[in-house]
């Protein structure tokens, strides 16, 4: 098996690594398992072009993406559209899809697990045709990301602290907007502060990620329009891993969801796998595609390697 590894030099962990030494280590690990790996470090500015070139030229059997959730999401879209197997090398802040795939978060352990891994088919979701592997979110999350962009940070810890500052600012003036959700032919009008749709339902861990990416269902999460004090309580419940007990959260599952925004603002945004994108359409169709994404994952018949 030949792996083309495209590594985002500016992705969290890679910023502080000797990336040439890392590539040499990756080559040794994959060669030991009888595979070939072509390591291609690149800048964040050129990461999408490098991923597209690696997938469309057909030089490899697996497209490995090294970086954060944004890099992984871009790679997943390219892999899905070109029917190429994807491997996720977690080098970002949260690494949520890597957690879903049970890839160890320590990079050397991840290389070892993937080098002896297996190809599986997992689910991927789309919002108006745009793929996502973790989450599509509207309302509170996009506003937080937009506020966070005003802060400077150079590290994973700095990004986390900037997120905390942004959350505190947004809580003082949480969003509120009307939406109509249609699931299985039933339309449900809601006035909400936040909507989130996950590629498979979230688990019970404090971090919001799906422990199983083969259920064939979207997770649907609706936070009703909240005053600041209720949002403070919700944020605390999320951090403590007890958000499912919060009365302001409505949780559902679905294979398809249609959203209609009666009063969509001109500058509205959504967040797709952690990246801020314009929300331009009054109607959004969210669909899960069961088993449509090929991924290289650690073997299921060996003990799971450490996450940290």
Automatic annotation (TrEMBL):
Keywords: Kinase, Transferase
Pfam families: DAGK_cat (PF00781), YegS_C (PF19279)
Single GO MF annotation: methylglyoxal synthase activity
PROSITE patterns: DAGK
Recorded superkingdom: Bacteria
Domain DAGKc: from-to ranges: 1-131
Family matches, as InterPro entries: ATP-NAD_kinase_N, Diacylglycerol_kinase_cat_dom, Methylgl_synth, NAD/diacylglycerol_kinase_sf, YegS/DAGK_C
Gene Ontology process terms (BP): methylglyoxal biosynthetic process
GO cellular component terms attached to this protein's record: cytosol
Protein name per the record: Diacylglycerol kinase
Species: Phyllobacterium phragmitis
């Amino acid at each position: 098996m030949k792996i083309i590894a495209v590594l985002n030099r500016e992705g969290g962990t890679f910023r502080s690594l000797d990336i040439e030494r890392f590539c040499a280590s990756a080559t040794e690990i994959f060669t030991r398992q009888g595979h070939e790996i072509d390591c291609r470090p690149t800048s964040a500015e050129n990461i999408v072009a490098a991923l597209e070139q690696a997938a469309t030229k057909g030089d490899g059997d697996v497209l490995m993406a090294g970086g954060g959730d944004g890099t992984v999401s871009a790679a997943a879209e390219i892999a899905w559209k070109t029917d190429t197997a994807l491997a996720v090398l977690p080098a970002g802040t949260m690494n949520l899809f890597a957690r879903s795939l049970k890839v160890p978060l320590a990079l050397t352990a991840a290389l070892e697990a993937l080098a002896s891994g297996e190809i599986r088919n997992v689910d991927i979701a789309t919002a108006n045709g745009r793929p996502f592997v973790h989450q599509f979110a509207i309302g509170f999350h996009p506003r937080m990301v937009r506020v966070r962009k005003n802060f400077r940070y150079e590290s994973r810890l700095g990004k986390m602290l900037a997120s905390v500052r942004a959350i505190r600012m947004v809580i003082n003036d949480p969003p509120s907007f009307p939406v109509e959700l249609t699931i299985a032919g039933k339309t449900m009008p809601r006035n909400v502060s936040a909507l989130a749709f996950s590629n498979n339902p979230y688990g019970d861990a404090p971090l919001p990620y799906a422990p199983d990416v083969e259920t064939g269902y979207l997770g649907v999460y609706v936070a009703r329009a909240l005053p600041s004090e209720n949002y403070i309580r919700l944020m605390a419940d999320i951090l403590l891993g007890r958000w499912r007990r919060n009365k302001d959260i409505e949780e559902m599952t679905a294979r398809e969801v249609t959203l209609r925004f009666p009063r969509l603002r001109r500058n509205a945004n959504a967040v797709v796998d952690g990246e801020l994108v314009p929300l331009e359409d009054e109607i959004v169709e969210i669909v899960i595609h069961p088993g449509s994404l090929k991924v290289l994952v650690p073997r299921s018949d060996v003990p799971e390697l450490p996450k940290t």
